[in-house]
């Protein structure tokens, strides 16, 4: 049964007349009368006594009024709660990023944001593969390069630089390459899988032959461990490399690639307060870390 019947019922019960109820609901008096008559017909019960001075509730009407008022209060409360979800800094935010950027740069920033807003929950999805924001696989995505999809909203938040790195122990043993041609005499660490256009995989293919890639894996942590143990050289973002001197940069003038960083969300989420607050927070963090992301300093 339509809730409209009960809206009309409550209006008549509160005002005591069809005319006052009609004014309250901004409808005509006959409309109110028809709704009350139809409700009584469906319930097979008289809800009002028609008196000369107005409409009075019958015992059945009094009983149903108490129940309807409780339902109406619950509906109002539910509506206010749902409206508040998008306006309050609480709830779940699903974020997608590549493993390196997500683990080494993004996670500490999300931790800082969550400390400011303890009712926020995060799910961080780390993968080379791109999740589909249009299918709501994530709420916010941090990506390399602009996907150019019409229903996504975002902006370029900076650039990150990539370089060639190797363990100091490896370089001491095998020698440091002095030219790009010298790379033919070295071993490399590569990616096991990923999109065909993944920037690190594409760059490595231009520098080496497949046989030179002695170790492939699909996590940044394993790559760093392989490099630290002298298994070969690798291409890596500057922010990813340990600062303790155990891993050194090689051929900085020849290998200095830069890639745009984009922070994106779906157009339907841009006005959600928790999403907007996170985007603004990350914009500021990227602005502060612009140089370190770009040049590793």
UniProtKB/TrEMBL annotation:
Q: Which Pfam families match?
A: HTH_1, LysR_substrate
Could you tell me one molecular function GO term of this UniProt entry?
A: DNA-binding transcription factor activity
Kindly give the Gene3D superfamilies that the UniProt entry links to this protein.
3.40.190.290, Winged helix-like DNA-binding domain superfamily/Winged helix DNA-binding domain (1.10.10.10)
Q: Name one GO biological process term.
A: DNA-templated transcription
Q: Does the keyword Acyltransferase apply?
A: no
The record's CDD domains line, in alphabetical order, gives:
PBP2_CrgA_like
Keyword annotations: DNA-binding, Transcription, Transcription regulation
InterPro entries hit by this protein: LysR-type_TF_proteobact-type, LysR_HTH_N, LysR_subst-bd, WH-like_DNA-bd_sf, WH_DNA-bd_sf
Domain of life of the native organism: Bacteria
SUPFAM superfamilies under this entry? Periplasmic binding protein-like II (SSF53850), Winged helix' DNA-binding domain (SSF46785)
In what residue span(s) does the HTH lysR-type domain sit? 1-58
> Which PANTHER family is this protein grouped with?
HTH-TYPE TRANSCRIPTIONAL REGULATOR, TRANSCRIPTIONAL REGULATORY PROTEIN
Task: Give the family from UniProt.
Answer: Belongs to the LysR transcriptional regulatory family.
Q: What is this protein called?
A: LysR family transcriptional regulator
């Amino acid at each position: 049964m339509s809730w409209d019947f009960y809206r009309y019922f409550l209006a008549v019960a509160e005002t005591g007349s069809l005319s006052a109820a009609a004014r309250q609901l901004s409808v005509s008096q006959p409309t109110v009368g028809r709704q009350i008559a139809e409700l009584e017909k469906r319930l097979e019960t008289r809800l009002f006594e028609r008196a000369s001075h107005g409409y009075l509730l019958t015992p059945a009407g009094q009983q149903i009024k108490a129940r309807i008022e409780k339902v109406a209060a619950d509906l109002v409360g539910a509506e206010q709660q749902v409206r508040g979800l998008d306006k309050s800094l609480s709830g779940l935010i699903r974020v997608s990023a590549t493993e390196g950027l997500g683990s080494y740069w993004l996670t500490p920033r999300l931790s800082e944001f969550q400390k400011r807003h303890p009712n926020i929950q995060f799910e961080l999805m780390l993968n080379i593969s791109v999740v589909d924001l249009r299918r709501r696989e994530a709420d916010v995505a941090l990506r390399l390069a602009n996907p150019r999809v019409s229903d996504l909203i975002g902006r370029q938040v900076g650039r990150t630089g990539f370089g060639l790195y190797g363990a100091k122990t490896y370089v001491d043993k095998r020698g440091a390459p002095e030219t790009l041609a010298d790379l033919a005499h070295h071993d490399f660490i590569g990616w096991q899988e990923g999109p065909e256009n993944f920037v690190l995989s594409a760059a490595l293919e231009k520098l080496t032959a497949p046989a030179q890639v002695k170790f492939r894996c699909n996590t940044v942590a394993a790559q760093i461990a392989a490099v630290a143990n002298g298994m070969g050289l690798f291409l890596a973002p500057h922010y990813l490399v340990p600062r303790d001197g155990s891993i050194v940069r090689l051929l900085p003038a020849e290998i200095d690639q830069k890639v745009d960083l984009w922070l994106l969300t779906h157009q339907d989420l841009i006005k959600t307060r928790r999403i907007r607050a996170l985007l603004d927070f990350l914009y500021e963090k990227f602005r502060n870390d612009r140089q370190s992301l770009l040049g590793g300093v």
